[in-house]
Amino acid sequence: MSDAVPEQVTVRLRIVVIDPPPGVTFAMQRGRDELVPPANRDDGHLSFDFELRTGKPLADGRPNLLGPFAQGTPSARFVYVNSGTLAGQADSCWTRRAKIMLAGIDQALLARALRSGSRLETRMRGTGTDGGPACASVRLIDGWKLTEQGRNAAAGFS
Q1: Residues near 129 by Cβ (< 8 Å), separated by ≥ 6?
Q2: What percent of the chain clears pLDDT 90, i.e. is strictly above it?
Q3: 2 lies in a domain?
Q4: pLDDT given at position 139
Q5: How far, in Å, CA of 5 to CA of 56, rounded?
Q6: Domain that holds residue 128
Q7: Whole-angstrom Cα distance, residue 129 to residue 29?
Q8: Does residue 105 lie within any of the structural domains?
Q9: Phi then psi for 82, rounded to 5 degrees?
Q10: Residue 82 contacts residue 30 (beta carbons within 8 Å)
Q11: Is-contact 82 100, C-beta < 8 A?
Q12: Which residue has the higher pLDDT, 115 or 155?
């Protein structure tokens, strides 16, 4: 089967934040200043579900992911997970934003997700090395992967 991905197709994604620091609010950034709360909180994990759409592929063949959650230039797309004051928690001592790169989503993975109706999911550690919320460009635990339809966001994560 071809890995060609049509333009203007919606792809479903999920970011799971593993063990965020207690008492710190997290929210996903939509556009410049809209905040979206986690879709799920389970066993100390948070998950954010969102959608992006495909545009014309980049000159190097990588997918061009678009939509209000997509930040950055076409060649370096990412999404933000904000924490503390940047997530609307006015009384927090933390003002942080984690950058989750979309570069690990290639045409083949995207095509498989669209064919199967699966969601693309990644996991990140919610706590940084200083004990506060993760921030800056975060390292993804296992990269971007396909999930089974209907699977619980936190199932199997420890």
Answers
A1: none
A2: 84
A3: no
A4: 96
A5: 9
A6: 10-147
A7: 23
A8: yes
A9: -90, 155
A10: no
A11: no
A12: 115
At 85 the three-state DSSP class reads helix
Q: Could you tell me if residue 95 is inside a domain?
A: yes
Asked if pLDDT for residue 153 goes beyond 60, the answer is no
What pLDDT is recorded for position 7? 81
Q: Is the dihedral of CA 60, 66, 72, 77 positive or negative?
A: negative
Q: What is the CA angle 148-154-155, rounded to 5?
A: 60
pLDDT of residue 64: 94
pLDDT-derived band of residue 44, with 50, 70 and 90 as boundaries?
confident
What tokens were used for 92?
């927090």
Give me the number of domains the chain comprises.
1
Whether residue 128 has pLDDT greater than 60: yes
Is 109 a domain residue? yes
- pLDDT, position 151: 45
Does residue 154 register a pLDDT over 70?
no
Tokens 């986690």 — which residue?
Answer: 38
What contacts 2, CB < 8 A, 6 or more positions away? 111
Tokens matching residue 86: 């940047």
What is d(CA 27, CA 50) in angstroms, rounded to the nearest whole number? Answer: 12
